[in-house]
Amino acid sequence: MSDATRDIEALIELMARLPGLGPRSARRAVLHLIKKRGQVMAPLARAMAEVATSARECAACGNIGTADLCDICRDPKRATGEICVVEDVADLWAMERGQAFRGRYHVLGGTLSALDAVGPEELRIPRLIARTRDENVREVILALNATVDGQTTAHYIAEALEGTGVSVTSLAQGVPIGGELDYLDDGTIQAALRARKSVQ
Ligand SMILES: [Zn+2]
């Protein structure tokens, strides 16, 4: 194998590690990139290098952006009294696609899991509790996946906020059992947010 071929094979191997891409589709993608070197590959490489150095977690909510505070936390038009709690940044982006929520977010970074030894300290739960005090939060909306761990996490947060005056609600109908937010369509997310219910 020549050096050039080895470089291309290495690129294919890296691409194949991306979610949703297997070895076959990675090979096809790399071939496409090479054919469209000027229009796609070079700008993509520049954009990736840029984001690789600038991407960071928002210090307040855990969203991913390129500044210390993300666009949502910096936006003065977003209501500060409501925090929508999600497991992952992908869920935050799914909620934003639905355009139904105009408050702020809090990304936990996972769910409580006895099996994987994930406790509240491993997630951003203490930070969430602190934010409800510091930002005068009236309502925490739990937009967690309808999985066992997601619901365990929801109950833990509801208990932790009991007696603080913060009302805790969760997305209601529309989120199927075992369902993941990232796979729901925008209409389903809007309906689920509107029909949120109290968990206290
Ligand atoms: Zn943020």
UniProtKB/TrEMBL annotation:
Q: Where is the Toprim domain?
A: 81-176
Keywords for this protein: DNA damage, DNA recombination, DNA repair, Metal-binding, Zinc, Zinc-finger
Q: Give residue ranges of zinc fingers (C4-type).
A: 58-73
The record's section on PROSITE patterns has: TOPRIM (PS50880)
User: Which residues are the signal sequence here?
Assistant: none
Read off the Pfam families from this record: RecR_C, RecR_HhH, RecR_ZnF, Toprim_4
CDD domains per the UniProt record, alphabetical:
TOPRIM_recR (cd01025)
Give the top-rank taxon of the lineage listed in the UniProt record for this protein.
Answer: Bacteria
From the UniProt record, list the coiled-coil ranges. none
Q: Which family does it belong to?
A: Belongs to the RecR family.
What's its job? May play a role in DNA repair. It seems to be involved in an RecBC-independent recombinational process of DNA repair. It may act with RecF and RecO.
Name the record gives this protein: Recombination protein RecR
Organism this protein belongs to = Albidovulum marisflavi
Q: What is the lineage of its organism?
A: Bacteria, Pseudomonadati, Pseudomonadota, Alphaproteobacteria, Rhodobacterales
